# Entry
Amino acid sequence: MSKIILAIESSCDETAAAIIKDEELLANIVSTQIEVHTKYGGVMPEIASRLHCENIAIVLKEALDKAQIKLEDISAVAVTRGPGLIGALHVGIQAAKTIALLYNKPLIPVHHLAGHIYANEYVKPLKFPLLAIVVSGGNTELVIMRDHLNFEIIGETKDDAIGECYDKVARVMGLPYPGGIPIDKYAKEGKHTYVLPRPLHDKSYDFSYSGLKTSVINLAHNLEQKGESINIPDLCCSFQETAIGMILEKALRAVKEYKVKQVVLAGGVSANSYLRAQIQEQLKNSNVEVVIPPMWCCTDNAAMIAKVASRLYDENVFAPLSISVDPSWKIDDFRNF
Ligand code: KG4
# Structure
């Protein structure tokens, strides 16, 4: 019998549903709210939850129609349980629970970042040991995997996530949300002329982005007070090389220490052109395979949630209807719900 997984994702500002049948992606529907949040310069959690409520049924119906699958036919329903915005996560989990209850289907809770890592399986099979560079709006982590569904966080941010830092820095320069996109674009036109600090420049694999954010904000304000204008392309280039440089330095050290065979990028910031180019360039003469997820997989989607769910299904990792969301769920604790 075929294994058909319906997956739902609603952890931030994308409402998404996907269906896979024996690993074939039959439907992958994403409704993004970016345009609405752009007006506020960032994701407004309450608005995100409301829009998920409005869109979830439409997105589900579109996925079922596209895949030509009926809810009776699915093997299980999977859903992002965390991390993410609490109200946003609740919408997805309530939809998934309702389907599980009405159609008597197993419910599979999936870790959002595991999803981002497994998005790479749409490109290449994962090879272990593997280093996942998880860089998104809410998270910055270096994760070692020694096998499937085996995650060890070797380093993480002590304060802000790298994507959050990109978004705040963009705001100070008057650039639109999500800030990573315009900064990445302007950085290509500029030079690294501004000196910025590299916090936690140490032997650990941890990161700190709050100090870098504050120094860019201070620099912009000081220039403003002196009546001088910011050179936007140069500040974007200096910021990008510093922010991504922090990731590259620690990731390349981890590649050696953990003797990894593969490096995968995961999360929204993996769309960054400098990160993508540099990681490939720096590892081109090594035996380490670099896997870069296609752009459609870098942003939030449910296809990646379905990939993880398919493996959890094989291991009978199912949850009771009493489970709830966990906005700060850790990836190394993903079996605990
Ligand atoms: O993974 P994601 O959709 O959010 C979370 O689920 O946390 O990532 C969104 C983040 C935003 O902070 C956005 O500015 C950043 O990804 N981003 C980028 C680029 N494109 C999106 N950051 C750097 N360079 C980019 N090209």
Q: What stands out?
A: Strands lie at 4-9, 14-21, 24-32, 76-82, 107-111, 130-135, 140-147, 150-156, 262-266, 289-291. The pocket of KG4 is lined by residues 12, 136-138, 163, 166-167, 178-181, 184, 267-269, 271-272, 299-300 (CB under 6 Å).
